[in-house]
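2024-03-11 09:14:02 DEBUG pipeline.ingest accepted 1 chain
2024-03-11 09:14:02 DEBUG pipeline.ingest length=76
2024-03-11 09:14:03 DEBUG pipeline.predict start
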Amino acid sequence: MNNAAISWVMKEKYLGVTLFGNTCITDLSAVVCKFYGQFNNILSVLGGNTNEMSTLHIVKTYCIPTLMYGCEAWSL
């Protein structure tokens, strides 16, 4: 690009997923930790005596999009 050299890096973060250069392995541990953090926050606020369907709806609305963000990059 404009005769500029592009440097090679060992890892890069793309859409919240860490990609490793030599092996093309994706690291999802940060995404999974964020999912569990959100999930535990929801359960701690709601407590144990709540409607299961409303809890499931809240988890599907707030936690699953965080987990699935950048899933297109997983197969890279």
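2024-03-11 09:14:41 DEBUG pipeline.report The chain is about 45% helix and 15% strand.
2024-03-11 09:14:41 DEBUG pipeline.predict end
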